[in-house]
Design goal:
Length: about 120
Amino acid sequence: MGKSVCDCDVIHSEIVEEVKKKMLSEEILLSMADFYKAVSDSTRMKIINALFEHELCVCDISSLVNMTKSAVSHQLKYLKDMNLIKARKQGKEVYYSLADRHVKEVFVISKEHILEKIDEEDC
């Protein structure tokens, strides 16, 4: 059998125009891609997981993820620059927490998605 070849530019021009009007800007799509790059690292996900549970200082995070304070600080800076976490200073200590409910929601939804897939595979 030969490959199917589309010999036209647009089949459903009305639909294409409707969708085109609703497409996000390149700037927003790039920012969304950057968001997913930020959470695509397992170390950063461990940190987000810990901060989902409680506000923590760098020492406590280091202990939880079994990394040096320097390495954790590097990841925290990246997450903060991406607006995924926020910092609060209390005396000499800096405490980190998730930036807002959206980060929590994305974490919960992605966890539920993964757990559902695991449950389906176990059936």
